[in-house]
Design brief:
Largest interface: A-B, 47 and 49 residues
Largest sheet of chain A: 8 strands, mixed
Structural class of chain A: alpha/beta
Distance between the termini of chain A: 76 Å
Oligomer: heterodimer
Structural class of chain B: mainly beta
Strand content of chain B: over 45%
Distance between the termini of chain B: 54 Å
Strand order of the largest sheet of chain A: 2-3-6-4-7-8-9-10
Strand content of chain A: 15-25%
Order of helices and strands of chain A: HEEEEEHEHEHEHHEHEHH
Strand order of the largest sheet of chain B: 1-3-4-5-6-7-8-9-10-11
Number of strands of chain A: 10
């Protein structure tokens, strides 16, 4: 009996000692050997036509070094626009969702590059560590660290807070809220933020997944809490969300973030829009004009 | 549905849905007085997993029961799947036969489910009350000369399982709108001497929508609830 008790205790200790965490499931990244952009044949976020083409001369492939645990890893980024105008004009920093890599989101970047007119705004997008060609393993911390690299680079190119707009889609909303809610920790602070299909918090993701009031720590170590971070944000917000988003629902996610945001805020709830299809459901022209009017007003 | 977050939600939803659905009704038929029993349970909600198909989740628990009286059994179970996440989850309760007739009975299983995060102390408890009607539709006895005869009983049962989530406020101050989570179950029990095999099909939370859970749960109620399948083995100690 004593042996059984000891073996049971050891089994219990071994089971709990190698605690399983589901944080990594937040990141749905894919690696690449090269960015193919228009030649990418895989699944993409949205399909856009030839009218949204961007000439090669406007596409700039960037690499930055991220120091993590004493090791240097590369983060890859794409800037679309005239780099010499970063010091003069408005730039949109786009923090993409949790899927694949920049090739997946490239059509969105092209769309934003056409807001107003082609090249009206510079559009910067980057891959979080572990996504695409960016090295490393994705974590919440290095997602924020890579965002800081993007901000730091923009600052080095002459960008100032008043001409920076940050946009976060889905997972990217965490990066935007982290920066906007903690401006002193980052090189730049956006003058306006746009959140498309944001999620409220890791804990709400978990509680929505089931029916019970389960603490987030039961499953994840993630600290992402946009619904709280947004309370500290003073920059004006545009919230865009598809009403048919059954994945991150309006009621349980976007609405919470929006309600908690103090000060200036606007919303665009899109009938027929699912998690990834808001631009399509709204119509690209309407979608771009809505963002444009928010940025320029 | 976007594939974004899919991996996360497959695991999260199955695990979470599994927490209140990770076991069948315990001791639908109470043990004899003074009887000890060990049990293992396997099964959970059925979900369509991409590339695999519809399968019951392999959630496990192990437990012990003791017949205090002829109609009253105490039991406790440890949920081993939760342990992998550093969460100790146990259920302790009793099975009480409140009515009995010829080859049949009605039992109640009041149970307390407790889950504790070993790493930060976060904890939750959920009371549960099951009620089941069972019918022994077939009984065979054989007494061999060497004394190693057999005693077989086959039973069917059906009932309701009720979970209660007493936390009024969820994350971000959201009002908890699922105080009562009922499920319906149908099962079959094969008993041969010391061994008892129990299979149970459960209709989980049929009053709640399954549409925002992302994972595709096949359900007998369309866009509500989910199905669960469970298999248990009991061994009655001599």
């Amino acid at each position: 009996m004593k042996k059984i008790f000891v073996i049971g205790l050891l089994l219990l200790a071994s089971l709990t000692a190698c605690r399983k965490r589901l944080d990594s499931f937040l990141f749905n990244q894919s690696e690449l050997t090269t960015y193919q952009l228009d030649n990418y044949a895989g699944e993409v976020s949205i399909e856009v036509g030839a009218e949204y083409a961007v000439p090669d001369s406007m596409i700039h492939r960037l690499q930055w070094n991220l120091m993590e645990d004493g090791k240097s890893t590369q983060v890859h980024a794409l800037y679309v626009g005239d780099m010499s105008r970063i010091a003069l004009d408005t730039v949109l920093l786009y923090c993409h969702g949790n899927k694949d890599h920049m090739d997946f989101y490239w059509p969105r970047q092209k769309l934003y590059a056409h807001m107003g007119q082609l090249g009206r705004f510079g559009i910067l997008m980057f891959d979080y560590p572990g996504f695409g060609l960016s090295e490393g393993k994705p974590t919440e911390e290095n997602m924020y660290a890579s965002t800081e690299l993007a901000l730091s680079w923009l600052k080095s190119q002459g960008l100032t807070n008043d001409r920076l707009v940050m946009m976060g889609f889905s997972l990217g909303s965490a990066a935007v809220c982290e920066v906007a809610g903690n401006p002193t920790r980052f090189s730049l602070n956006a003058s306006k933020i746009i959140l498309e299909a944001p999620f409220a918090s890791a804990e709400i993701l978990i509680q929505d997944g089931g029916l019970l009031s389960i603490p987030g720590s039961f499953l994840v170590d993630l600290k992402i809490d946009n619904a709280n971070e947004i309370k500290k944000v003073s920059a004006p917000l545009l919230w865009i969300h598809g009403l048919d988003d059954s994945f991150l629902t309006v009621a349980h996610h976007g609405q919470l973030v929006f309600d908690n945001k103090p000060g200036e805020k606007e919303k665009e709830l899109v009938p027929g829009g699912e998690h990834e299809t808001t631009p399509t459901a709204m119509g690209y022209t309407n979608y771009m004009n809505r963002i444009l009017s928010f940025i320029t007003q | 549905m976007s594939r974004a977050f899919l991996k996360l939600f497959i695991v999260l939803s199955l695990f979470i849905f599994g927490i209140f659905s990770c076991a069948p009704s315990r001791y639908v038929k109470p043990l004899d007085k003074g009887q000890h029993a060990l049990q293992v349970n396997l099964g959970g909600p059925i979900a369509k997993v991409p590339g695999i198909g519809a399968i019951p989740m392999p959630l496990t628990s192990v437990g012990y029961g003791y017949g205090m009286k002829e109609n009253f059994t105490l039991f406790g179970n440890l949920h081993t799947t939760s342990l992998l996440f550093g969460v100790g989850q146990v259920d302790v309760g009793a099975a009480y036969r409140c009515w009995s007739g010829k080859n049949m009975g009605i039992t109640l299983q009041p149970t307390l489910n407790v889950a504790v995060d070993f790493y930060n102390g976060a904890n939750r408890f959920w009371p549960q009350l099951d009620a089941n009607y069972y019918w022994d539709y077939n009984e065979l006895k054989s007494k061999a000369k060497n004394g190693k005869g057999f005693h077989k009983i086959r039973s069917v049962y059906g009932g309701i399982s009720n979970w209660f989530d007493p936390y009024l406020i969820e994350s971000q101050g959201r009002k908890n709108e699922q105080f009562w989570i009922p499920s319906l179950q149908l099962g079959h029990i094969w008993q041969k001497n010391q061994w008892i095999y129990q299979f149970e099909a459960k209709f989980l939370a049929p009053i709640y929508s399954n549409e925002d859970i992302v994972v595709n749960y096949p359900s007998a109620f369309g866009n509500r609830g989910a199905l669960g399948a469970y298999f248990s083995i009991y061994y009655k100690l001599k």
